[in-house]
Write a structure and sequence with these properties.
This protein has 230 residues and is mainly alpha-helical. The chain is built from 8 helices and 2 strands.
Length: 230
Amino acid sequence: DKVLRELIEPYELRAAKLREFLEDIKPSLCYDIVPLVDPYGPSVTDPDLQCLVVSEETRRGGEAVNKKRLENGLPELSLYEIFLVKDPDHSQNEEEKISSSSLRQRLLGTLLRPPRQDPALPLRPYVIGLTGGTGSGKTSIAKLLGHLGAFHIDADALGHAVYAPGGPAYERVVAVFGAEIVNEDGTINRKVLGAKVFGNQDRLKSLTDIVWPEMARMVKEQIREADAQG
């Protein structure tokens, strides 16, 4: 459950950096770096261990280790607590301590590696799917991409278009859900339709089975139009 775990370096690289750091601090000591495949690692099974270094945040974990050691018939470890170094440059949305999560957060928007060419994908047009919850910034990002020359396809607008009178899904939606969903001007009353489907998975699936394939077809048509425009 690490934040931005896809930006965490491979174990082998992290272990090598740790060993380099430890040997730089005190090269006379022998260091045995092992991967932790469970929350405790060798700390609850190794009878030769005597001390466990913990931080302000992990002291309770150290106490849990000692509880487990007693259950396993091993003596408790001495817990040596170190204080966390504060990050004077942390932003409002970052942790106060020096944190790898904060460092990864700052990497957002950085090109980590050059784009790879996938032979299975056509060279153009390059299609980006932009999604997110309400207020997540989809409109702002779409405008920025538009300024860079992107052809913008608004799926919300297409969703309205399929319902419109004469639209590809109009007649089937009315046939399935009844004339009571139609306004006096012939348009579909989305609130009435919504009341019929939301909370009813079967009816909602009936609606999406009609609407989504038509939306997908319209999206593909617009992609072909964008390709034709270069």
